[in-house]
Amino acid sequence: MNGQRRRGRPADAGKHAEILEAATQVFLERGYNATSMDLIARRASVSKITIYAHFSSKETLFASIIDALAGRLTQGIQRLVCDGLPPEQALRQVGRAYLKLALAPGSLALHRLVVAESARVPGLGKIIHRSGPHPIVATLAKYLKGRKELRISDPALAAEQFLGMVLGHTQLGLLLGARPAAATRANIDRMVDHAVGVFLSGCRA
């Protein structure tokens, strides 16, 4: 992410990961506003100077946590684009990876935190959207655009709508504690297969 790391000596990858892990724990425990770089430094057993050698601000550190989550999924989608898998197979793989990530306990906890804090911290919501959903949609849209057998006039909108279909009300149900988590996660394949079938039936050439 631009501006994430200051210029100078290359940052140690292991220390970088340790800071991210410690920061995630503190953010989830205390919320965004109550979290300070001093608290994160103590949790990570490093100096505050070390943290600033890796992350230029608390905002970029928080966005990097979202980057790490979204990055794993985006890389998986990029591999599908390169492999040229047929739409039904590719969308099933993308949908399952996306839903598993969205329904993971850590993702749900971060989602609650982002929703709670974005209203109180100006600009935080835009940072998170740029780091999380945007690259996932953009990568899937690139794949859809290259599939000539699909009748899609707006690949970006189609990518958003496909991911929305996959997510449905499932994430909301878990966020509100209105659905049993284990049973919901066990049903991921069926939910994704249904979304893929509906989506492709509407955009076959």
Gyration radius, rounded: 19 Å
Largest sheet: none
> Would you list the SSEs in sequence order as H and E?
HHHHHHHHHHHH
Shape: globular
Strand percentage: under 5%
Mean pLDDT: 85
Helix segment tally:
12
Determine the fraction of residues in helical runs and give it as a percent range: over 70%
Q: Give the structural class.
A: mainly alpha
List keywords for this structure.
mainly alpha, globular, 205 residues, 73% helix, 12 helices, disordered N terminus
3D structure, described in words:
The protein has 205 residues and is an all-alpha fold. The chain is built from 12 helices and no strands. The chain has helices at 13-30, 37-44, 48-54, 58-83, 87-103, 105-118, 124-131, 133-145, 155-167, 170-175, 181-186, 188-201. Helix 4 runs antiparallel to helix 5 (87-103), helix 4 runs parallel beside helix 7 (124-131) and helix 5 (87-103) packs across helix 9. The longest helix has 26 residues, at 58-83. The termini are far apart. 26% of the residues are buried. Residues 1-10 have low confidence and may be disordered.
